[in-house]
Structure prediction request, 56 residues.
Amino acid sequence: MDSGTKVIKSFRIDDDFDFSILKNYENNCDLFLFDSKSELPGGTGNLQLGKFKNIN
Prediction:
C-alpha cells in the first residue's frame, strides 16, 4: 500500500562529487536534493547548476 510519503536523499556537492553514486539510491528514493558542500552543517543555497549538464 502506498502511503503517499516521498523519500528524499540529499547530497553535498563539490567539484569532486561522483554522480554515478546516485544509481545506488535510484530504487529507494523518490527525489534527490543537491546543495553545495560547505565546512559548516546545513545547506548553503548556493548550487552551481553547470555541474548537472551531463547527468542522464
User: Anything to note?
Assistant: The radius of gyration is 13 Å. The chain has a mean pLDDT of 79. The beta strands are 8-13, 31-36.
